[in-house]
C-alpha cells in the first residue's frame, strides 16, 4: 500500500532520469513476499537505447500546441515523448522501454528500425534520394516487380503513391473512368482516407467534413457482433442489391471495402458477405476495390492479403502503411486493362515511387520472407487471440474479441446484454496499460475498442505480457 501511494505522489518531471529508471524497475519487479502484489514483467530484450539530451515531453507539448494543429490530440494524460525504437519496442526520453502493440497504427510491419530496412534506406539515400519517374531508376522497378509477384491473377500493374488516402483516391477515380459510371458503394463504419473522394466512402461522421460528396452509398456493416444479422453475410449483402436497385441507375463504378475494419475497431466482415457482394457488383458493371492498407502484407497471418480469406479476386487493390515499415509510400495495383484508363490524361505523382521509399518497400518484402513474419503472425496472433478470449471469460467488461493475426480488436462494454459502449473505461485501461509498459490503440465507432496491431515480430512472451497487463488493469477497475 505504501508503495502504491508513493507511485501516486511522485511527479515524474521533478526527479532525475536515473531516479525514474530506478523507480520504474522497483515498481515493476515487486515480489509476492510479505503479501506484496506482483506486477507483470516486461520480457527481456537486449538493447540499450542511446542517451537522449533533446527537448522534454512538456517542452514539446507546449511547442506542438503553438506550431502544429491541435485538432488531433496525443494519447494519454501525459503524452509520451518517444525517441527510439527497436523491433517491437519503443523507448521514451527517460530510456524506459514499452511494448509497442499498436505499431504506429498498423504501420511498423517488420519492427522498428529493422536492420535490413534501415540498411536499404541508408544505402539508397547515399546514392540518390530523389529524381522523378521521368527517369529510369532500378529501385522503383525492382519494387514494382516484386510487389506484382505477390498479387494473384492479372493484378500486375503498379502505381505508387505517397499514402493510403492517395491510393484510394486514385483507385476510385480509375473505377469511375473505366466503368463510365459514378456511383460507388462502401460499408458503414469503414475508413478509407481523408481526401474528398475517400472521405466520401468513409462512413463515420467524425471523419467527415461538410464538403460535397456525390455518388456515394453506404450499406449495412456486416458486423458479426453488433450487426442485425449476426454471422449471416448473405443477408447483409442484400442491402447492397437494394442500393443498386433503388439508389442508382442500376449500374455502378464499384464497391470498396476493408477485409477487416481497422479504424472501425478490428471488425472482420461476416462470412459469405464479400463473395455475395462481388457477384452483385459485377452484374451491375462495377469494379471490386480491396482496401488492404491495414490488412495487407501478411498482417492477418492466415493470408498475405486480407481479401484472400474471403475467396474473392479484386479488380483493384490499394495498400500503404506496412508497405514501407513507416516510409511514406502507398500503391495501387490493378490489371493491365484497367490501368489503360490513365493513358487518356497525364496522371503524375512527384514522390510516387521515390527511390528511398521504394528501397524500403523491397526490403520489407524480403524481410517478410526471410524472417517468416507471416507464419509468425499466424502462430503468435492465434495464440494472442486465444488468450484474449480467455480473458473475456474472466472480465465482463470485454464484450467481443475479434480479428486475425496481428489485426485484433477488444471491444469493451458496460453491459454484455445491452452492449453499452464502455468508452471512458477504455480510455482508463489505455492509460493504465501505458503506465505498465504496453502501448495499444483505441478505435471503433464508439471509441470503446482496444486496437492491437503490433509489428509482426511480436513473440508469445510479448503476447503474454500484453494480456497479463490488460488482466491486471481490468482487475483493478
Structure description:
- Helix content is 38%, strand content 16%.
- The radius of gyration is 23 Å and the shape is globular.
- The chain has 477 residues and is of the alpha/beta class.
- The model is unreliable at 1-31 (pLDDT under 50).
- The strands form four sheets. Strands 4-12-11-10-7-5-6 form a seven-stranded mixed β-sheet, with helices on both faces. Strands 13, 14, 15, 17 and 18 form a five-stranded antiparallel β-sheet that branches.
- Helix 6 runs parallel beside helix 12, helix 9 (233-247) runs parallel beside helix 10 and helix 13 (373-394) packs parallel to helix 15 (460-475).
- The chain has 15 helices and 18 strands.
- It has helices at 2-9, 17-28, 57-67, 103-106, 115-127, 138-149, 164-179, 196-201, 233-247, 273-283, 336-339, 355-370, 373-394, 423-435, 460-475; strands at residues 82-86, 89-92, 97-100, 157-161, 184-187, 216-219, 254-258, 260-261, 267-268, 287-291, 316-319, 330-334, 398-404, 407-415, 420-421, 438-439, 441-443, 449-452.
Topology (elements, then pairings):
Elements: H1 2-9, H2 17-28, H3 57-67, E1 82-86, E2 89-92, E3 97-100, H4 103-106, H5 115-127, H6 138-149, E4 157-161, H7 164-179, E5 184-187, H8 196-201, E6 216-219, H9 233-247, E7 254-258, E8 260-261, E9 267-268, H10 273-283, E10 287-291, E11 316-319, E12 330-334, H11 336-339, H12 355-370, H13 373-394, E13 398-404, E14 407-415, E15 420-421, H14 423-435, E16 438-439, E17 441-443, E18 449-452, H15 460-475
Parallel strand pairs: 3-16, 5-6, 5-7, 7-10, 10-11
Antiparallel strand pairs: 1-2, 2-3, 4-12, 8-9, 11-12, 13-14, 14-15, 14-18, 17-18
